[in-house]
């Protein structure tokens, strides 16, 4: 959810912090703030609203400190307000903290601190942290840097929940302490300077060399050095990672919005995801996965776990695994999976899908699966993200940075990668080589077919102009097309705030058709030639009741509907990669007609790092 940035070096921190926060706006937030050390005093400027409003606040440009921290807040504890905005300070103004995550036991910690005469200025869970640090600091037996560091460590031992923290102290104007638990944090290393952020793209233009923190790893940072410590104050060495993403990929490149840019980047993102993994007449290459025929023959099911759009990709993956691997597959929402007792064991293969690699519910679900003996595969778009360090195996989509909150290119890349994984399993199991060869060929054609879909979007834009004022839209599809209906409906809700529902086509008459009346819009996906007649019959049922129709299809039929968007023919199992694109564009154009912020829809965040 929230975003954090930090800087320590020889440059003025304020513009660097504001630049980083602006690059984190896609995560979703309602307030923003920064704190810098000015000589030996901490100066904080924060407010409800956007980063642009923060940047225009009086005297912010007069902050000259070369060490600072910044934050964009998505409200959990306490309404959006200046008082609840980060950074938060202790009562003595000695420590300033920014925090991503949720402190679950903050009420008990507040009571503890109040019993020691501390007071609170906000409604947040975060404000306990700087005050706890102060409490341990003034009661410490240590001196120097270890006094600062040990106070942070003792505080973190008291916290229950998730946190990524940046802490500065007026007693140490040349140092910063950072730590994480179940919330993302990276440290970028430059020449005599360091950049800290919750997301790599926010600081990618400054450096490509990153340290990726694991849970309860503490970094004591100065301008030209970083020391890493464990909970017991034991120092250790940490490997630096070079991130090959192009910083320009996080810019709009002439597009009006990141979402439209990312929709149009799908040919490239899928080419990158395919890479050298599949080619005709050769076995699939997935060096990251060493599961052999013996293991694959022994499993009783595949369990796919994810949230939101990633779960819709998983639903498409279910059809692929069952069709070509002949292994039963289940798909579950991570937020449900983690709070029940799922029937999984060492004979279950669990696949966890998350674009960011930081989705809290999905990571918790993975750890639950591991505790029950299941093997785990993570599918992520972010190298070194939290889930990739927890899973037994990791596959990357290589879609490049996805900035818009509503996922587009990550979704289609996830489906393609699931298809490649299923082909890999089928080859190892020795299943239907001719069928596999045809599917490979169709996957390799996808990038050029997407380019064809994107050539002319005028009919989609025109239809969006006709219906953008509507309050309800219905989506239907049969089989794998239903998974696309779910994703299309979600996109419309996310960015245009139009109520929409998705149904399996055959379920319309079991209740939903009561909502169909004259002028209502129905969106239908139709890509399976075996289901054409039945699907058209379902569409006719709503046409006779006065509904407007928007059909996405790769089939040939004579029926006259309001708008028919033709996509290229392909294997039914990967048809969602093509059929979803008109739905992405429909949602985009409706949102634009309504004058909404396409990239940053209200109340939503790109990376859901809290429950």
In short:
The protein has 611 residues and is an alpha/beta fold.
Q: Unreliable runs, pLDDT <50, ≥5 residues?
A: none
How many separate domains?
A: 3
Give the spatial strand order of the biggest sheet: 3-2-4-1-10-9-11-15
CATH topology annotation of the largest domain: Glutamine Phosphoribosylpyrophosphate, subunit 1, domain 1
At the fourth level of CATH, the homologous superfamily of the largest domain is Aminohydrolase, N-terminal nucleophile (Ntn) domain
CATH class of the largest domain: Alpha Beta
Shape: globular
DSSP helical segment count: 18
* Helix content range: 25-40%
Largest sheet: 8 strands, antiparallel
Mean pLDDT, as a whole number? 90
β-strand amount:
15-25%
Estimated radius of gyration: 26 Å
Which structural class fits the helix and strand makeup? alpha/beta
Cα distance, first to last residue? Answer: 10 Å
Number of strand segments: 25
The CATH architecture term of the largest domain is: 4-Layer Sandwich
Question: What do you see in this structure?
Answer:
The protein is an alpha/beta fold and 611 residues long. It folds into three domains: 244 residues, Aminohydrolase, N-terminal nucleophile (Ntn) domain (Glutamine Phosphoribosylpyrophosphate, subunit 1, domain 1, 4-Layer Sandwich); 202 residues, Rossmann fold (3-Layer(aba) Sandwich); 136 residues, Glucose-6-phosphate isomerase like protein, domain 1 (Rossmann fold, 3-Layer(aba) Sandwich). The chain has 18 helices and 25 strands. An eight-stranded antiparallel β-sheet has the order 3-2-4-1-10-9-11-15. A hairpin with a 2-residue loop joins strand 2 and strand 3. Helix 3 crosses helix 4, helix 7 runs parallel beside helix 13 and helix 16 packs parallel to helix 18. The longest helix is centred in the last third of the chain and has 22 residues. The protein is globular, with a radius of gyration of 26 Å.
């Amino acid at each position: 959810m929230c975003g954090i940035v930090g800087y320590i070096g020889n440059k003025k921190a304020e513009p660097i912090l504001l630049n980083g926060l602006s690059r984190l706006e896609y995560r979703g937030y309602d307030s923003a703030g920064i704190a810098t050390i000015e000589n030996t005093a901490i100066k904080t400027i924060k407010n409800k609203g956007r980063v642009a409003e923060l940047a225009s606040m009086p005297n912010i440009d007069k902050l000259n400190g070369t060490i600072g921290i910044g934050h964009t807040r998505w409200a959990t504890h306490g309404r959006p307000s200046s008082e609840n905005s980060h950074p938060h300070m202790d009562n003595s103004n000695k420590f300033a903290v920014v925090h991503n995550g949720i402190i679950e036991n903050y009420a008990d910690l507040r009571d503890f601190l109040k019993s020691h005469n501390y007071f609170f200025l906000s409604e947040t869970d975060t404000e306990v942290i700087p005050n706890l640090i102060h409490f341990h600091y003034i009661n410490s037996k240590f001196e120097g840097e270890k006094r600062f560091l040990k106070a942070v460590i003792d505080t973190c031992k008291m916290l229950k929940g998730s946190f990524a923290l940046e802490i500065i102290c007026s007693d140490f104007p040349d140092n910063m302490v950072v730590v994480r638990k179940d919330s993302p944090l990276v440290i970028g290393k430059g020449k005599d300077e360091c950049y800290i952020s919750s997301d790599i793209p926010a600081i990618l233009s400054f450096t490509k060399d990153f340290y990726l923190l694991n849970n309860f790893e503490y970094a004591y940072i100065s301008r030209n050095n970083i020391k890493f410590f464990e909970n017991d104050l034991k120092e250790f060495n940490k490997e630096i990672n070079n991130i090959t993403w192009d910083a320009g990929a996080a810019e709009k490149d002439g597009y009006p919005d990141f979402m439209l840019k990312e929709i149009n980047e799908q040919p490239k993102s899928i080419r990158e995801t395919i890479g050298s993994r599949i080619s005709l007449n050769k076995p699939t290459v997935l060096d990251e996965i060493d599961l052999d025929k013996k293991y694959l023959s022994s499993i009783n099911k595949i369990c796919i776990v994810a949230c939101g759009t990633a779960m819709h990709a998983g639903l498409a993956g279910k059809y692929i695994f069952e069709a070509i691997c002949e292994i039963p597959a289940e798909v579950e929402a991570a937020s449900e999976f983690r709070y029940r007792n799922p029937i999984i064991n060492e004979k279950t293969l669990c696949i966890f899908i998350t674009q960011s690699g930081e989705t809290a519910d999905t990571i918790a679900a993975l750890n639950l699966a591991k505790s029950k003996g299941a093997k785990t595969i993570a599918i992520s778009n972010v190298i070194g993200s939290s889930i990739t360090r927890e899973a037994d195996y990791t596959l990357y989509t290589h879609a490049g940075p996805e900035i818009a909150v509503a996922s587009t290119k990550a979704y289609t890349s996830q489906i393609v990668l699931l298809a490649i994984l299923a082909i890999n399993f089928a080859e190892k199991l020795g299943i239907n080589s001719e069928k596999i060869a045809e599917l490979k060929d169709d996957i390799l054609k996808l990038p050029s077919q997407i380019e064809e879909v994107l050539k002319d979007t005028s009919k989609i834009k025109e239809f969006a102009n006709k219906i953008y004022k509507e309050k309800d839209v219905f989506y239907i599809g049969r089989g794998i097309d239903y998974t696309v209906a779910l994703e299309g409906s979600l996109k419309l809700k996310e960015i245009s705030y139009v109520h929409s529902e998705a149904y399996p086509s055959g379920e319309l008459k079991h209740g939903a058709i009561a909502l169909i009346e004259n002028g209502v819009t129905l969106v239908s996906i139709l890509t399976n030639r075996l289901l054409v007649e039945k699907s058209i019959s379902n569409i006719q049922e709503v046409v006779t009741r006065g509904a407007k129709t928007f059909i996405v299809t790769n089939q040939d039929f004579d029926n006259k509907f309001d708008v028919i968007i033709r996509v290229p023919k392909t294997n039914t199992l990967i048809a969602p990669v093509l059929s979803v694109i008109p739905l992405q564009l429909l949602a985009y154009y409706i949102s634009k007609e309504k004058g909404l912020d396409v990239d940053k829809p209200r109340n939503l965040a790109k990376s859901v790092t809290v429950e």
